[in-house]
Amino acid sequence: MKNFVLGAGTVAAAGAAVSLLFGAGVAAAAPNVAGETYGDAASAMEGAGYSVKVAVTVGSKLSQDDCIVTNTWDAPFVRDGGGSYNHANGEVMVALNCDGDHATANHPGASVASPAGREAKQAEDLEEAKKAYAEQQAQLAQEAELAEVSTPDE
After folding, report:
1. d(Cα 3, Cα 33) in Å, to the nearest integer?
2. Where does the record place Low complexity bias (predicted)?
């Protein structure tokens, strides 16, 4: 059996050829803004110099700015730059969930078995508990006021 050995120069030349053929990689990965609203995420990414493109939208119950970003990735294509082709540097693709934060019996959304859905459900339950507590306190205060018997001063 013959051993095949490549010199360092041959390997470097092959790597350079592959880079020229397929393009060099993007210097920085897309920012991870999953879980944020599109409005907040897009503002932050545009402020950092990225160009944000919506690639996937699921649902239509929310306005686009209120949709939840579920994924981000670098644009995987080449743009025609006036006769020369350049990788779409700085373009970030986003996937949006516009159905809402978590699923209920009559409202689509993230499963409550997922971390995002579970967190949203817990936040909703907390808000409902606060509202019920405030209503209970108001009712008790009203009952206490009615229980006080006052007689007019003569």
Report:
1. 49
2. 134-148
Three-state DSSP state, 23: coil
Tokens of 3: 């051993």
Place of tokens 């025609």: 80
The residues, ordered by sequence, that sit 6+ positions from 34 with a Cβ below 8 Å of its Cβ are 69, 70, 71, 72
Mind giving me the DSSP string for 18-42? HHHHH-PPPSSPPP--TTSBHHHHH
- Give the tens place of pLDDT for each residue, 37-56: 899 999 999 999 888 999 99
How confident is the model over 6-17, as pLDDT tens digits? 444 444 444 444
Distance of CA 152 to the CA centre of its chain: 64
Q: CA 37 to CA 21: how far, in whole Å?
A: 38
C-beta of residue 68 within 8 angstroms of C-beta of residue 37: yes
CB atoms inside a 10 Å sphere around CB 92? 23
CA distance 135 to 102: 25
- Are the C-beta atoms of 38 and 69 separated by less than 8 Å? yes
Kind plus residue range of the DSSP H or E element containing 108? none
| Under 8 Å between Cβ of 55 and 49 | no
The Cα–Cα gap between 42 and 138 comes to 42
Specify which residues 52 forms β-bridges with.
92
